[in-house]
Amino acid sequence: MEALSSFSPKESKGQSLHRRFQKFTEVHLSKGEKLTVSSQKPSVRKITLIWLSIGLLTYGLSIAYLQSAERNKNQLVSTGFLTTQMINNHFYLAAQANGFGFRFLVDTGATVTAFPRHMMNKLGVTHCASFGVSNTANGKVKVCKATLPNLTIGPFNFNNVKIHFMPDLHEPLLGMNILKRFQMTQSGGVLTLRANSNDESASL
What we know:
Radius of gyration: 37 Å
Number of strands: 12
CATH architecture of the domain at 75-203: Beta Barrel
Shape: elongated
CATH superfamily of the domain at 75-203: Acid Proteases
Oligomer: single chain
């Protein structure tokens, strides 16, 4: 009887790689070598820059919050009315227009709400509708007449507000064209403004 010839099944690719890895580890481990997985740690400079960026961002947000709190600390906003405390014999109200926040000086002697001329771009006003003359404590002043699309004061929203821009005005003045929409009472250095009606949005 003839002897059966030896037969070796064909080695798969996975088995071949496994056998080579075993051989590699046996050779190197026999030499006392250690197999390690390399890991690259972030540099000290990179970590420092990351923490510095976080610190600067936190500082910037803190300053913005404190400035906002400073503008509004004397003003209490509630549904249908708001109050503000007297500062140096004047009353101020925080407001916003075109995404820009500012502070009004309440001026019952001003017929029309007025802004310094340099605030035109910040308020989103691109041009004057017309020009006129306004009587002020310093005499007659040439004014730029315009319309403010939207103005928010506390819970109150006003649309298409007629305003004046004046060249030498130092701060925004809240005039009677808006103040007439409120019932104003003053007591103990506190000014309270209540809406004349339930409608908190109006065109002026």
